[in-house]
Amino acid sequence: EQACEFFSLSSVAPPLTCIAPRALPLKMSLAYVFSQRAGFMAARGLSASAGKSGLFAHVPSKVKIVEVGPRDGLQNEKALVPTATKIEFIRRLAHTGLTAVEATSFVSPKWVPQMADHVEVLSSLDHTGPVAFPVLTPNLKGYEAAVAAGAREVAIFGAASEAFSKKNINCTIDESLDRFKDIMEAAQKDNVRVRGYVSCVLGCPYQGKIEPSEVARVTQRLFDMGCYEVSLGDTIGVGTPGSMSRMLATVLEKSDPSRIAVHCHDTYGQALANILAALQMGISVVDASVAGLGGCPYARGASGNVATEEVVYMLSGLGVETGVNLDALIDAGSFISAAIGRPNSSRVANAILGKKQR
After folding, report:
1. Which residues are 303's β-sheet partners?
2. At what angle do helices 347-357 and 308-317 cross, to 10 degrees?
3. What is the largest distance, in Å, between two alpha-carbon atoms of the chain?
4. What is the phi-psi region of residue 154: left when phi exceeds 0, alpha when psi lies from -120 to 50, beta otherwise?
5. Is 264 tagged catalytic?
6. Is the distance from CB of 66 to CB of 285 less than 8 angstroms?
7. pTM of the model
8. Cα separation of 57 and 48, whole Å?
9. Which side of the chain, N or C, has fewer Cβ within a 10 Å radius?
10. Contacts (Cβ under 8 Å, ≥6 apart) of 131
């Protein structure tokens, strides 16, 4: 029965309770569940990963991690982090095997003082190597400054909550997205890739529950505008594997899972479970923040991005390739935690460092 309940949530397949699993031997019940889930995934063009079977058969064999610590992780810090420290932090992350490190935000220093040194940070990075350094650009002025500083990829953002959008930027969702048309046109001319973010996909601090259909609509608008990928953010960390799966099932009716990423906060301790649910539905890009740094400055209760160390450790245990060296990642997390005077929030990092100190 537990297996039936799990798969009815994680695969968003038709409820399996109607087949009265108690009437079947356990092995037969599980076999039926797995076969039903395989059919669900196959109908969406998703196949089992080589070498995996049963519960995790449809987890991708390779996952890309987008490290958001230098931007999303540090933007909430009240004490200004020295520019040289930020640059060294990014340099260490770039030597872990990560291929995408979100470096900074070209937002007005009036709104996010921590990101006031965005030009100095971005211009100091090597944009010719294998690591991409995307930056957040809220308007055309920010976009132009970012490109002048060397940006080859930028990110724009919208919300799935009208209340969140009106509360924070005083406009509707559609009005907020219309503001990015100039950026999209310029990016196309400049051959700059654009990634989209959707906030509050599983809950809003002002509106509460969010309908999956609204998440799907905003996601599609970002794709129609020209975004190559859209990251779906559980901004206040209220999601569960059930709500994550239901939301993704709606989004994936029109969107290719290879173009969707998830961005989970660990406010209620559900981030890893939510990521696993997403992986089982074919998602292969995950945002994370080393040492669990960060949260949204405009969303009350949005404490703690999921720690990158936790994600890498879990994926390693699943046999999923990330290309990330966990020891080097822990080193980067320890460096920035010491620099800002905060305890490292990664349980994986603390466990491994604790073993080394014995």
Report:
1. 295
2. 80
3. 67
4. beta
5. no
6. yes
7. 0.85
8. 5
9. C
10. 94, 98, 99, 100, 101
The pLDDT assigned to 57 comes to 81
Q: Which residue has the tokens 């905060």?
A: 342
**What separation in angstroms does the CA of 309 have from each of 95, 131, 164, 284, 303?**
15, 18, 30, 17, 17
Q: Nearest-CA neighbor of 148 among 132, 130, 127?
A: 127
pLDDT at 300: 55
Q: In what order do the strands lie in the sheet with 104-105?
A: 100-101, 64-67, 285-288, 260-264, 229-234, 193-199, 153-159, 135-136, 104-105
Question: 4, 200, 227, 296: which one is catalytic?
Answer: 296
H-helix segments, 16-116: 26-43, 83-94
In angstroms, what is the C-alpha Rg of the chain? Answer: 20
Query: Which pLDDT tens digit goes with each residue over 239-290?
Result: 999 999 999 999 999 999 999 999 999 999 999 999 999 999 999 999 999 9
Strand 104-105, strand 64-67: pairing: unpaired
Token digits for 34?
């797995």
Q: Taking a C-beta distance cutoff of 8 angstroms, is the pair 237, 304 a contact?
A: yes
CB-based contact 264:275 (threshold 8 Å): yes
Q: Is 51 left (phi over 0), alpha (psi -120 to 50) or beta?
A: left
> Phi/psi at 15 (nearest 5 deg)?
-50, 135
